[in-house]
Amino acid sequence: MASLRDRKRQLLTRLAELDNRLHDIEAELDTHQSKDWGELAVEREEDEVLEGMGASGLAEVKQINAALARIEDGSYGYCVRCGEEIAEERLDVLPATPFCRICAR
């Protein structure tokens, strides 16, 4: 069973990983300036993938920040919808989840 301190450390580590990844994505998006039309088309397709990854990363950052706020206010580990305790196994897999297994459906 992970302690609250372990969960917070896990969330902060993931937040740092996402921050690095989002900065890398931003840097990569800024480098695409090909003059060749064919290469530019490929770059635009790659940009769409990178933008999707960035949006996904930003959504995860928002979830992690919300989980960290729940840790601070003492409500972490309880479902925000029904108030029941979230299973430890679920938090092991999804430490930022705000929902129990039933409410997540």
Automatic annotation (TrEMBL):
A zinc finger (dksA C4-type) spans 79-103. Keywords: Coiled coil, Metal-binding, Zinc, Zinc-finger. InterPro entries: DksA-like_N (IPR048487), DnaK_N (IPR037187), Znf_DskA_TraR (IPR000962). Residues 9-71 form the DnaK suppressor protein-like N-terminal domain. One of its GO terms (molecular function) is zinc ion binding. Residues 74-104 form the Zinc finger DksA/TraR C4-type domain. PROSITE patterns: ZF_DKSA_2. The keyword Phosphoprotein does not apply. Residues 1-35 form a coiled coil. Pfam families: DksA-like_N, zf-dskA_traR. This is TraR/DksA family transcriptional regulator.
